[in-house]
Amino acid sequence: MLLKRLMLQGFKSFAKKTVFEFDTNVTAIVGPNGSGKSNTAEALRWVLGEQSLTTIRGRRGEDFIFAGTPGVSRLNTASVSVVFENSARQFSIDFDEVELTRDVHRDGENIYRLNGTKVRLRDIIELLSSVSLGASAHHVVSQGEADRLLSANLEERRDMIEDALGIKIYEYKRTEAKRKLEKTEVHAKEVESLRREIAPHLRFLEKQVEQAKRAESLKSELLLLYGTYLADERAYVEDRSEAIASRTELARNKREEIERAISDLGKLREDVPRNAIMAKISERDVLLHSTRERETEEIRKLGKIEGALEGKKEEKERLKESTEEDEDNGATVPITSVAAFVGELEGVAEVALVSSDAESARGALQSILVSIRSFLDRCRGLKVEKSENREHVIESEIQELEREVGSGRAKLELFLRERGGYEHEIIVLRAELDSLVSKTRDAEREHYELDKKRSEILNEERMISLEMSQIVSMKEDLKREETEAAVLVGRAVLNNEGSDIQPSREEQMGKRKKIERLKIRIEEIGGGGEEVLREYEETKERDLFLQKELVDLRETSQKLLSIMEDLGNQIDAEFKTGVARINLEFSKYFALLFDGGGAKLTIVRPRKRHVVSLENSGEIVEDNEDVAREGLDIEISIPRKKVRSLEALSGGERTLVSIALLFATVAVKPPPFLVLDETDAALDEANSKKYGDMLETIASDTQLILVTHNRETMSHAGALYGVTLGQDGVSRVLSVKFEEAEQMAAR
User: Fold this and answer.
1) Strand, coil or helix: what is 65?
2) Which of 140, 270, 302, 320 would disulfide-bridge 408, Cβ 3.0–4.6 Å?
3) For residue 26, what are the domain limits?
4) pTM of the predicted model, to two decimals?
5) Domain tally, the chain
6) Mean pLDDT, the chain, as a whole number?
7) 353-398: per-residue pLDDT in tens?
8) Dihedral (Cα; 362, 363, 364, 370), 10-degree rounding
9) What angle do CA 672, 675, 677 make, to 5 degrees?
10) Does any domain span residue 527?
């Protein structure tokens, strides 16, 4: 099977219709970065049914439609077609060429076509699965996807290797077998459900056939049983009615007596003047508080008056002492009086000094002496007069203060008497209130007990009422049963006198159940014995048919389980065989790229990690559990290095390991074609040469399409396509020579 051509129109940067013809076994697509050359690999994966948009650098369907540039209008549809050569009929359709087309519109609608006919995505996937193709990464590989083989977890890596080995077709078949098994099991459960539904009816019909032969004997038995039951039931209902009537009267009398007592207690509680006493206490508290405040205020005023009185007495004493001292030592006069007097003396002295007459001078001095004596007498008279006046004023003030002190003390005495009276009244009132509270509590306790008894009696009355309702209902049921019995077995059933000893309710209920069973059996048997027999035969035949169908379904389930087991064994065997073969090639390619060393895939069983918190201790423990499906790990040994884990590899080393594993997988199970999108980008010149030699090896069995910048890789291509991005933002394709391809890749 050969990939003949790829056609793009409106897909990403390929606005115009572009055709890639793959006439040789190795085709290289080159071009500068950003030219759109990798869009060809993405287009191929997309047309083969890829559903993960992020894998091909998109978030929604319209991201794959040419968005337009300033010079070229945007498009509303992207279309990609791929054509396979099918002359050997690898595809199970009768065409020499198989053309798959996928269109996407801006509204997100995807349309799939097979040789021009619209089909479902599922049809495309099933067709490609039949030849080990699909949207998976094992035959369309980018640089990042090659590394996915290394970065994947154990189970993901197994899925990738199984996909590359072509084992997925068995997984698909096993999934289909599982789906059929589930459908078969559902059908089997439905058949079992039908049989379960039929079984009771079938057993019922079998009994009916037997009971039809006993119809007459059952009626006789029912007549006797029914008569006894009805007579005993009438006696029971009458006895219960009388007993309930007596209990009702007794309970009513008790309740009325308690309600009268409760009413009397209520009146007693209303007559208690508790609130009035509390109001009086509150009133006396207010008066007492007011009296205490006035008493305190009066004490404060009296203290101030007594202090003032004491001060006046001290002032009077000081004035008295001062007057006596002035009389002994002379009086003092204000400085202004002295200054005026000095001025007078200076005038007289000047007259004496300037007088030339001795007699005149003597007369002047004599005048001075007289003036001094007169001034002294005047001063004494003023001081004495002033002291006497002040003493009279102070005495008057003292007398007034003493009167105020007497009045204040009288008020205090009055306040004390008032306060004592209020306090005594409060004590008396509180004692009266305590007595009333005690009586009230006793009354409330008695009221509580009476109310409790009343509730008990009310509950009893409700129970009696319920029992009475039950008796009424029983009377109605009894009347209805008597009517039914008379219709069913004749009125003679009403003449039975019943049992000598009243039976228990359990015995009566047992009779009632037995009567109902007899009635049902008689009613079911009726007069249609032949119809019952015919229905029994039909139901039995239906059950046998379902039983046979269930056996067939269980045989089918066993076959499907066997197929699933065989497919599982085949998958396991081919997987292990494939891994062993891959390891041979993996080790060979690894040694070629690393100049020695070795690498291999190892089959391991992953373990699930459970974190468990212990409530009591607060500790956290890990519980590892084996999973059912085995995974793949990678072991490597690089010459002159102790590196054993993939995480310790450099970026370049990871690239070489991923290339070795990729080529080993391809060598074991060569795909019809392989697209390598710049998987050689990180290789140096020496490794590029090795990479080219490896391409030559796998090209003998697999058609190669190489998206590359690498000169060495280009040199192995039989045809070269150059992709450029024009000034209008549209990718164009040219068929170029090797030298031209080098120049385009170097831009």
Assistant:
1) strand
2) 302
3) 1-139+671-747
4) 0.51
5) 2
6) 81
7) 554 555 666 666 676 677 676 666 666 565 656 667 777 888 888 8
8) 110
9) 170
10) no
